[in-house]
Amino acid sequence: MHRKSFYYHFKDKYDLVAWIFDNDTQIRLKDTKETDYEYRL
């Protein structure tokens, strides 16, 4: 990825890390069933 295109999508490297964390969290939550969630509480 070129520097110009990186900064087009993200403000800085911390913004990229936040984006990765958010996307990973959303994917994992979609894979978790409601029954699994209720069971863990």
Structure description:
The protein has helices at 3-9, 13-31, 34-40. The chain is mainly alpha-helical and 41 residues long. The protein has one domain (3-40). The longest helix has 19 residues, at 13-31. The mean pLDDT is 82.
| Secondary-structure element string | HHH
Distance between the termini: 42 Å
Total helix count? 3
- The number of distinct structural domains comes to 1
Overall form: elongated
What portion of residues belong to β-strands? under 5%
Q: What is the helix content?
A: over 70%
Radius of gyration: 15 Å
Topology (SSEs and partners):
Elements: H1 3-9, H2 13-31, H3 34-40
Could you list some keywords that capture this structure?
41 residues
Task: Give a short synopsis of this structure.
The protein is mainly α. It is 80% helix and 0% strand.
